[in-house]
Amino acid sequence: MVNIDTVYQRVLALANKEQRGYITPQEFNLFANQAQMDIFEQYFYDLNQFMRVPGNDTNHADMVEMLEEKINIFEKETSISSGIGQDGFGNQIPVFNLAANAPNLYRTSQVRVYRDGGWRVVEKVTKKQLRLMKGGPLTAPSKYRPVYTMRDKNNLIEFYHDASTIVVDYIRRPKKANWTYVVVGEKALVNPDSAAGYQDFELHASEETKLVVKILALAGITLKDPNLYQIAATEDSKNIQQEKQ
Fold first, then answer.
1. pLDDT bracket for residue 18 (50, 70, 90)
2. Number of domains into which the chain is organized
3. Does 82 share its domain with 163?
4. How far apart are the C-alpha atoms of 32 and 13, rounded to whole Å?
């Protein structure tokens, strides 16, 4: 994790609040969560890119290993019991409510079902692929070739065939960062025990500097300071180039 109070104090110091203006805790929290999600979502684009190029034998310098380590923080699994739904032909099928069991879902990794003493990975197919599969006896889904489709904004899993329980491996979203405070005199001081719910950043500890830079860029827009925005944006661009060289 990254300590949110450390990031907040660094942002205030670098923004030089006495000359440029003051970043309120409310503004900081908005910027903080925007920055956290920007960094988090970029992991998946970067992973896709680096998996297409050769790695190296040094784990601590291999970009794929580093990105997977950062993503692993958010990997979860959940066991879901089935309800009854209908497919496009009116046939009853098991339906699994993913949203109810993983409300912080970002994306699914894989679906598994227990078959003959072991867990079998279930193939994900589109509605069109499912229709084509059902068209022939050799391609139709079966107990030993189960498939699933997603619907309702990835909230429900339609499963084919015969399962009362499935396990879903998924990536969850980071918890919302929240810098809580108490006013002492004219100063806002961190208050980790606030009823509002103090929450550090959940990103890997190595992301502290990147968080500061991205929050400063957003603050520069609010403070109407193009120099602050430019400095932060340039630093962010330099970090990206170093990572991708």
1. very low
2. 2
3. yes
4. 16
